[in-house]
């Protein structure tokens, strides 16, 4: 394919696009997009450090054996920078795995340059993420600056010589580790959930030339990707065709406020707010435009200058402190020897570079310079955390137990999945009991708590009928009770025919109708049409005269 006359390469899953625009920015790039994903999704960017500003005059061409992007004045914007001599007929190829490569000749299989050696923020199946021991270089993931700017951001995922991954902030501070690789268990020691992995096949290679991890997908129909996100988290996403969106079902670190430097200097992080970052009292956003793009790394600046040092007084104004409650302060303070809180405050005021102090349990702590990693937590929770959600995955009558006072308890959490509050779905191929499984289980996509809602609805039908939802009748046919119940409700049939015959048609019709309606609501094929478990008790107890939405 002639790259100068064909500005894109197309494969079933991926697309090489010349002059790719990201969001609403004025930056243009040469990059690789997912081809059959309705949401424009970038897998790789070539010129992330030097975007194109005039896409009509820029060119992508092969020159002297290199792939080159030039601007309108023919000045190079980006190049593969190969210095070794190669064939005069170099060929550019976008391979099936998403690797964009230069081949040494039209019929050659020798790769002389490849995008898999120059990863951006995305790790695709088949790519190596590790260390080249011969060249002492690393394949690492580096975040974008924000969702409109593909320039390298402050966060990187990198393999260490100890066979564990670190997430780095500006390559100076690491704040998360996977733990070393356990070759017997085939997991990272600090990522135990890999034991229940049914999606990826991870491989670790360590020899005299290189040390790296790579992975493949057991089911090739699942489109997934790992990204080093500009939020500072490594995120694992899969494409859900039904909802037409990328689903996040795992990220590390799990809590946003565990990301080093997330809110920048003098920013405070809170898990209980949607924006996560705010400025401390007396400070304002350094760059409001970047904050609007969820790039908080620039932090905050003072709105009032300090008088600075030795308890200085200017115009009868003296530096003072603002008390902050329910705060987790930064690490590594200085601890001067003082005898009281007043002396601790004075010790900080004596230093022009001191910005904060704390006094607790006869210990004085003072912080110098910019304050990073200040976290605010919920006063109602000593840890400042929100409880995770458990998806039971096997709701059925046999797993509902009654105590001596007939109070129901859910039992058998053998298939349960733990889902943090930052996730909307969790992917699992484990199976519950047939007859109670939501449709999304069958399709193999990531499930939500609405899967338990579906199972609960099926169980409500069995409470009404006193028998299994699918049973063979005397004529040999299998009847599906939920379908029959839904027909009775919509067509105005005799609902007492649905009732367990052992009750002798003795039931409160309003309550029976209410339960049947809620059961039908719970077993909708589309999970977005089902109620949440929090809505169900209210709906079951609501009088029919007020139930307009069910």
TrEMBL record:
One of its GO terms (biological process) is recognition of pollen. Residues 202-545 form the Protein kinase domain. SUPFAM superfamilies: alpha-D-mannose-specific plant lectins (SSF51110), Protein kinase-like (PK-like) (SSF56112). Pfam families: B_lectin (PF01453), PAN_2 (PF08276), Pkinase (PF00069), S_locus_glycop (PF00954). Residues 1-115 form the Bulb-type lectin domain. It is a single-pass membrane protein. One of its GO terms (cellular component) is membrane. Residues 308-389 form the Apple domain. The chain crosses the membrane at residues 12-30. Its main location: membrane. It is found in: Membrane. PANTHER family: OS07G0415500 PROTEIN (PTHR47974), RECEPTOR-LIKE SERINE_THREONINE-PROTEIN KINASE (PTHR47974:SF19). This is G-type lectin S-receptor-like serine/threonine-protein kinase At2g19130. It comes from Punica granatum.
């Amino acid at each position: 394919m002639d790259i100068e006359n064909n500005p894109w390469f197309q494969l079933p899953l991926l697309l090489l696009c010349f002059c790719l625009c990201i969001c609403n920015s004025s930056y243009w790039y040469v990059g690789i997009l997912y081809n059959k994903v309705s949401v424009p999704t970038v897998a790789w960017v070539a010129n992330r450090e030097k975007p194109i500003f005039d896409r009509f005059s820029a060119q992508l061409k092969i020159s002297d054996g290199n792939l080159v992007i030039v601007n309108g004045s023919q000045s190079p914007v980006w190049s593969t920078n190969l210095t070794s001599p190669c064939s005069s007929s170099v060929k550019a190829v976008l391979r099936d795995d998403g690797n964009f490569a230069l081949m040494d000749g039209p019929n050659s299989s020798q790769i002389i340059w490849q995008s898999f050696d120059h990863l951006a923020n995305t790790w695709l199946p088949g790519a190596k993420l590790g260390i080249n021991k011969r060249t002492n270089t690393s394949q690492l993931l580096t975040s974008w600056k924000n969702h409109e700017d593909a320039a390298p951001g402050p966060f990187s995922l990198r393999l260490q010589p100890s066979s564990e991954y670190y997430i780095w902030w500006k390559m100076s501070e690491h704040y998360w580790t996977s733990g070393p690789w356990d070759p017997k268990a085939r997991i990272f020691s600090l990522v135990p959930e890999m034991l229940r992995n049914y999606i990826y096949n991870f491989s670790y290679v360590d020899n005299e030339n290189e040390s790296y991890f790579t992975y493949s997908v057991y089911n090739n129909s699942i489109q997934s990707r790992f990204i080093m996100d500009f939020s500072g988290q490594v995120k694992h996403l899969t494409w859900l065709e039904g909802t037409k969106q990328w689903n996040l079902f795992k990220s590390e670190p799990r809590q946003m406020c565990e990301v080093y430097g997330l809110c920048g200097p003098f920013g405070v992080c809170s898990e209980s707010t949607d924006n996560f970052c705010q400025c401390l009292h007396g400070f304002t956003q350094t760059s409001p435009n970047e904050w609007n793009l969820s790039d908080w790394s620039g932090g905050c600046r003072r709105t009032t200058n300090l008088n600075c040092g030795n308890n200085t007084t200017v115009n009868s104004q003296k530096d003072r402190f603002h008390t902050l409650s329910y705060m987790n302060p930064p690490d590594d303070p200085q601890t001067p020897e003082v005898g009281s809180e007043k002396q601790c405050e004075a010790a900080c005021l004596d230093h022009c570079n001191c910005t904060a102090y704390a006094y607790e349990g006869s210990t004085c702590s003072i912080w110098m310079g910019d304050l990073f990693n200040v976290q605010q937590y919920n006063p109602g929770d000593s840890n400042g955390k929100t409880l995770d959600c458990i998806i039971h995955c096997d709701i059925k009558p046999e797993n509902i137990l009654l105590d001596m006072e007939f109070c129901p308890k859910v039992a058998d959490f053998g298939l349960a999945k733990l889902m943090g509050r930052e996730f909307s779905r969790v992917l699992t191929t484990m199976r519950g009991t047939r007859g109670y499984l939501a449709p999304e289980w069958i399709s193999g996509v990531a499930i939500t708590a609405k899967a338990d809602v579906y199972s609960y609805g099926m169980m409500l039908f069995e409470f009404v009928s006193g028998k299994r939802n699918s049973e063979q009748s005397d004529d040999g046919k299998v009847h599906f009770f939920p379908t029959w119940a839904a027909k009775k409700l919509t067509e105005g049939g005799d609902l007492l025919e649905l009732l367990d015959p052992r009750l002798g048609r003795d039931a409160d019709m309003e309550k029976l109708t209410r339960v049947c309606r809620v059961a039908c609501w719970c077993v909708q094929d589309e999970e977005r049409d089902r109620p949440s478990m929090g809505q169900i008790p209210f709906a079951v107890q609501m009088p029919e005269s007020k139930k307009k939405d069910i």
